[in-house]
Amino acid sequence: MRLDLRPRSRRSPLLAALSPVLAFAGAVFIGGIAVALLGVSPAAAFLTYFVTPLSEVWSLQEVALKAAPLALIATGLAFCYRANLWNIGAEGQFVVGGLAGGWVGVATHGSEGFTLWILPLMLLVGTLAGVAYAMIPALLKVRLGVSEILTSLMLVYVAELLLDYMARGPLRDPAGYNFPQSVAFDGAARLPYLAEGETLHAGVLIAFGAVALATLVLTRTLFGFAVRVVGASPRAARFAGFSDARMTFAAFAISGGAAGLAGIAEVAGRIGQLQPTISPGYGFTAIIVAFLGRLSPPGILVAALVIALTTIGGEAAQIDLKLPLDLTRAFQGLLLGLVLGADVLARFHVRLVPGGPASPRA
Fold first, then answer.
1. Quick one: how many helices (H) and strands (E) in the chain?
2. How far apart are CA 163 and CA 180, in angstroms?
3. Which stretches are transmembrane (predicted)?
4. Is the pLDDT of residue 346 over 90?
5. DSSP per-residue letters across 165-226
6. The whole model's pTM is what?
7. Which has more pLDDT, 362 or 221?
8. Burial status of residue 93 (CB atoms within 10 A of its CB: 0-12, 13-18, 19 or more)
9. Where are the domains of the chain?
10. Which homologous superfamily is 58-320 in?
């Protein structure tokens, strides 16, 4: 017996809209069984994961702060994935963006007089650093045919080791009692807070703005049309005059720039200095977010909020219910698998037919 997928002649809009909801419900149900096997009430776990983080102002701010970099990075990755290009190295581009932009903050530490230019320069340098770092796998793919999956992924470790070296060496605070961190950025090098005494900063607005801009580009511009055509049918795209090489450079530049901007926004926002580690894995988690959001910027924003909510809830469950944090990561992976599976069921009829695997046609 083998599975046979036949495209549906007409895709139901209702089924397409309900599939992620049903996938989420299925993930919650399976997660509840796992929690019960660990000896914890599923109802208590549900409240801790999904209700408690929405009941207090500080936790709502934490959800927004975690969702912002995920949405920003995933929105950039959507351009690559829609064009059938595979940038797996957004984590490295995030780190390089934070490092390069943070270097500006360290170099301008103690500046006096007119300092309003410092923060915009940091954001610009961080974004350009992310673009430049993403150009490495793009160039290797276009010129030498090297898999962008391998090169972009391997460059993550280069970026992390470079940040670790700089934070412990050339950029370390000489008056910091030998701690591996730079000087704390001046106020002019920090993203402003949206409210006095709160933790929410302007980086959240940058992410929302990027989602809105990406939505406009993908749905209302010729470039967005080219991205969709190249991803759906490369041969048709070539007949239409769209260059694979130009699209590769453009898509990687957008995804790298978004990741670099997210990196410097995190450094100039929550962290406020350079440290050996500036990311809890945003670049990798953003891959999940991008596909949970179906590579659509509005969907990505919703997916980022859901993943951020489960992350904050998972941290609370680890403290209050003694549940392992790995359970949260397993839930997020399960959610992605169920969403992708639901999409397959919404687009295809699945049948069991007799016989072995279909033989390839000559």
1. 13, 2
2. 11
3. 21-51, 63-81, 88-108, 114-136, 148-167, 200-227, 248-268
4. no
5. HHHHTTTS-TTSTT-S--PPPPGGGSPPBSSTT-S-BTHHHHHHHHHHHHHHHHHHSHHHHH
6. 0.91
7. 221
8. buried
9. 1-40+323-355, 58-320
10. ABC transporter involved in vitamin B12 uptake, BtuC (1.10.3470.10)
